[in-house]
Amino acid sequence: MRCYCINHYNEPLVEMKMALPKPKAEEVLIKVQAAGVCHSDLHIWEGGYDLGGGEFLSLKARGATLPHTLGHETAGVVVSMGPNATGVEVGESYLVYPWIGCGNCSTCISGNENLCTSGRPLGVLEPGGYAEYMLVPKPKYLLALNGLDPAIAAPFACSGLTTYSALKKLGNDIATHFTVIVGAGGLGLMCVSILRAMGGKGAIVVDIDKKKRDAALAAGAHAAIDGNADNVAELLIQAAEGAPRSVIDFVGSPETTKLGFNILVKGGKLVVVGLYGGSVSLPIALIPVRGVSIIGNLVGNLEELTELMELVHSGKVPFIPITKQALSEANDVLTRLKEGRVIGRTILIPE
């Protein structure tokens, strides 16, 4: 089978021919129909994450090996399965939950495989969906599409799940107060859509790119603020009708995290999702004095993806803009994403 792999970090993906996997035990082999290109793929392609101060979180240190096939937003049709696999049907299309844990630790047993310290997520440490075929460890990680376009469905495995999980961490505040969304890329636009579906009061989006701000307004945002404005904090507070109770930072840079922290009302929550990287200095005393919470959000668990897909199938979630491109154009897509030239999500389709 053809796949597009990292052979060396920070170098173009290489088209490779791999043997077609033969599923064993509970494994399921799918023929990939759609693979979303996520900003996290850039970090994986770079080999890890910038921690600031010259520190770097290496994927190699976590067990990553090369060559590696990217792609953790994948939908496909089942073509074969191991002898112990049940609950899925050959010929049916499914969305893949990629955040696979060890299955044995207390974190996994509690249902939070995405937080497993020994996890082997598909497309991150195990082969992903930038390929013609993909091996899924167990049927429970496959969610039926029930006629949903695989290209529409694929981003829900990461972009959708991450925003849904982040919004849940804000509790009932999303219904009674405006939510500030920092960054209007694929996740930011997905957040605007899912917030509406969850009955949120509305989104105040901030981004430095006018095209992305316009896309946020088209998606239903209440307001879109220029992140380069000298008085951006004042404009956000004004648009939110007061200091916000909830901020989700989908960028995760020192500047955006500090902005989110500074504009919170007492008792507010800042959920940090973005992995841009670096480090930030915050006045520690103000965290307890203002009673604010700073919460990290790493994708979401299988139960949350199941809940989200039920919401999607109900017809309540407006779909974000997608652009379909051939799998062979993966390098071009990654380049445009790195340069900030992607609106919504680009979906790779195997030829």
Give the DSSP E fraction (strand runs of 2 or more residues). Answer: 15-25%
Distance between the termini: 12 Å
Number of domains: 2
- Oligomeric state of the chains in view: single chain
Identify the CATH homologous superfamily of the largest domain. Answer: Medium-chain alcohol dehydrogenases, catalytic domain
CATH topology of the largest domain: Quinone Oxidoreductase, Chain A, domain 1
Helices, by number, come to: 12
CATH architecture of the largest domain: Alpha-Beta Complex
How large is the radius of gyration? 20 Å
Number of separate strands: 18
Element-level helix/strand string:
EEEHEEEEEHEEHHHEHEHEHEHEHEHEHE
Q: Report the structural category.
A: alpha/beta
Overall, the morphology is: globular
**CATH class of the largest domain, please?**
Alpha Beta
Unreliable stretches: none
